[in-house]
Structure formats: C-alpha cells, structure tokens
C-alpha cells in the first residue's frame, strides 16, 4: 500500500497567535522572545523576517536589525491551549497523529483513500479549518514519508501547500543544500562541503564507501535520506481509549424530547468519529449534567461492538429512559469505550449490515468532503444550528 504522510506546521506560530489576538499587530514586524539583556528570539512574524530576524537569534541583534519591531514576551499557556485546538482539528483527519512540537504534527494518511481520495484537497481542508476555527495560517506538506512531508511543508512557507509524489522524490530535493537533511548540522555540512558535496543531489550520488570514511555509520542513513527514502513510521501518541462528544447548552433543556434530539445528534457525531478512526465500541455511556450541576453517567455494554449511529442512539436512548428528569439539563454527552480497531460492524455479517456499511461509506465520504453537518437524520433537519 502506498504510504502517505501529511505534515502540518503553523506559520510563525507564537507571533501569529499574538497577531490574531491584537489587530494592531497585524501586518507588523512582531518579535517574540526573551526581552532581557541575554534573551533570544523565539519567533518572528514574516514581516519581521524581512529584516533578517530569526528564531534563536540574540534579542539585541533582532533589535538592531529591526528597531521598528514590536517586541513581546509571549504567553506560553495560551500557545499550549491553541496547540490543543489545532491537534483536535488534525484528529478529525487521521487517528494516527504524531505531534512534533506545539505547532506541528505528522498525520499518517495511509489507507484512507476511500475517505480522503485527494490529499491535496484534504490538506487544503485542514488549512481552511485551522484558519476558520483557530484563526492562524498553517503550511502543509504531503509526501510518501515523514522526511519529505516535513520538507515539503517548509519549502512553500508561509501559507504553503506542496505535494511530493512517489517517483518525484529525488528530483524534488536534489538542488537543496545538504543542511536540509535531518541530522545534518553545521559540522556535518562543513565536512561534506570539504568533499565537494553541497547539495542533496550530490550527496545521493556520492560513493557510499567514501561517505562512510567521513560520516561513519551515519553515512548510510544520510544517503538514503538524500535519495528521498525514509522508513520511519508515524508514532501516534496513544491509542484512544474512548471517543466521545458532549454539548453544554446555552439554555437548559426542559423536555424529554429535547434531550432525545440531542442524543441523536451526539450519536451521529460519535458514530462518525468512530468510523473515521476505524474503531467500533462495545460500551456506550451517557452523561447528564443537571441545572444544579449534579452530574450522572450511565453505561450499557453491547454484545457486539458497533460504530453505527442508530445503534449508538438506541443504546443511549435506552440508558436515558432510566434517568428521571426532575430539573433542567445543562449538558448531555455520549462516550464510546471498550474500543476495538476495525472499520466495520464487527462479527455481524449479514446483508443488512453490508448495506448499512455501504450507506455509511457514502455518508462519511460526503461528511469528509463537505463537513459533518452536510448529512443528518431527517428528524434533525429543522434545527437551525
Ligand atoms: P517553528 O515551527 O520552528 O517556527 P514558527 O512556527 O515560528 O515559524 P515557521 O514554522 O513559519 O517557520 O516553531 C514553532 C514555535 O516554537 C515558534 O513560533 C516559537 C517556538 N520556538 C522557539 O521558542 N525557539 C526556537 O528556536 C524555535 C525554532 C521555535
Ligand atoms: Mg511553525
């Protein structure tokens, strides 16, 4: 199966968040970092980069290069919160995400063709959602491996979107300096330069024996990278233990019918997430928080794991039918646990199941393309949210 990785990285992350939150900073050279005498630059907006300001540069040097800059210390807690929002969006596109830092992550898209047939379009959607929901700009790279995907996201910055297709690997990187290779710092780059090797293409063509003399055991890996080969897998942070969704209402729900409507909506969301992550669940939990903040959770375990909206809904409804509603409700949630990997309705093989499965594949394709709200159960269509 063709491996496909998307690497997503925010543009001038800390500075972008500050520009988002303060309109006066937009389009201005914003420099974030330590402002004391020995401080260094964390990042600079692209406007400031025009003056040669870069990450890790002493702040005094940044001030010298860009005296008209706006210098800020930044707010790390805020960046962590924003990072969480970004990673949550990415999780909607693949269950296999490896965050590399606060502002970047790899998504393993291998085997998701049925859901995301056009990865350029998928990357465009990821960028659009980050822009719309988080308010900052991301660059994306798509390639058959991690090294090339990360490179691709960087080559077209800011607001980049670049794909390197199988077969194009070597050509795409041949002219770049060797310092673009992972693990090549200044020392290695200098010793390679002494051998007359400046570009990745030159390195790819260098005799391996000669290379080993200068770079030791590192030579083989280095040359493979130079040929655009990288087998490292995306290491997802953890397997999800649960997949759930909850809603807090602006106005408390006051009728059983309202709660059931919410359960239906939540069941669709949980079902969609389970199918997208290729999981089925055996246990469904309903969480209710009453107006008084009294909170209860009730669960039911099924004989067979499911990821079908209607089974999640009927199970949630059965749980709900045992709960007495003697005050308003401020929050309703559904969580699926006892997860099993697998896209289909496990252990239920019947014509009916097959039919449902193809129906969900069609529905999920539309949801992936146009957003979750494009298709919903008939009884929910009158809702205006
Ligand atoms: P990067 O993604 O390396 O940089 P960036 O997002 O600011 O700019 P771009 O990706 O468009 O080139 O790092 C993400 C954040 O990490 C950055 O906004 C600030 C922080 N950081 C530091 O604090 N020190 C550093 O030396 C670097 C490189 C980043
Ligand atoms: Mg970045």
From TrEMBL:
Keywords: Cytoplasm, DNA damage, DNA repair, DNA replication, DNA-binding, DNA-directed DNA polymerase, Magnesium, Metal-binding, Mutator protein, Nucleotidyltransferase, Transferase. Residues 5-185 form the UmuC domain. It catalyses: DNA(n) + a 2'-deoxyribonucleoside 5'-triphosphate = DNA(n+1) + diphosphate. Its EC number is 2.7.7.7. CDD domains: PolY_Pol_IV_kappa. Its main location: cytoplasm. GO terms for molecular function: damaged DNA binding; DNA-directed DNA polymerase activity; metal ion binding. One of its GO terms (biological process) is SOS response. It is an enzyme of class 2 (transferase). This is DNA-directed DNA polymerase.
